[in-house]
Amino acid sequence: MALRLPLIPLLLSLSMTCHASLRQAPEPELRELLLQTVAEADSFQDRFDAEVWLLDMSTRLKRYMPATQERLTLLRLVHREASKAGLKPDLVLALIHAESHFDRFAISPAGAQGMMQVMPFWKAELGRPQDNLTDNATNLRYGCTILSFYLRKENGDLNRALARYNGSLGQHRYPAKVIGFWQDFWYVKP
C-alpha cells in the first residue's frame, strides 16, 4: 500500500500557490479546523477522501458561509446525513443552495423551515414536536430522508423526486434550479 502524505497541508499550499493573488497565506486556524473536521468525519471511506472533499466543498461554500468552523461543521453533517440516506452530498448541497442559500433560519411563505426547508407538520407526524428544524443536524436528517424516499418512490427519477420534495410535481422549474446549481457549482466527478 502506498504511503499517503497528509493531504490538507499539501492542498493548502497548492491552493495558496495557485491563488496567491486572491488570498493570504493559509490561516493556521483553518488548517487545525480542517484536521479536526477530518478526524471527526465518520461517513467517509478514508481520511484521504475526507480531506479532499472537505477542502473542496469548504472553498466552494465560503462565499455563502464565511465562518470556517460553521462551514466545516455543516459539511460534515451534510456528508453524514446524505450518506446515511443514500444521497450524493453534493446534490444535497445544491438543494440547500436552491432552498435557503444556506440560511438555517430561513422560513418559506408556506412555512417550511431551515436549510432544507422542511415542513413543520412532519414533527407532528413523527410525534416529535420538540424537534427544532433550524438545527442543522435535525433539518438535514429530515430533509435527506424525505428526498431519499421520493427518489425511491420515483424509481430514481431525480426531476420527479425534486418536484415532489418541493411540492411542485408536474412542474419543471424547481428541479431545473436544483440540478443547475448541482451541475454548475456543487457537482463532484467520481
Automatic annotation (TrEMBL):
Keywords: Signal. Coiled coil: none annotated. InterPro entries: Lysozyme-like_dom_sf (IPR023346), Transglycosylase_SLT_dom_1 (IPR008258). The keyword tRNA-binding does not apply. Residues 78-173 form the Transglycosylase SLT domain. It holds the Pfam family SLT. Residues 1-20 form the signal peptide. Belongs to the transglycosylase Slt family. PANTHER family: MEMBRANE-BOUND LYTIC MUREIN TRANSGLYCOSYLASE C (PTHR37423:SF2), SOLUBLE LYTIC MUREIN TRANSGLYCOSYLASE-RELATED (PTHR37423). This is Lytic transglycosylase domain-containing protein. It comes from Pseudomonas benzenivorans.
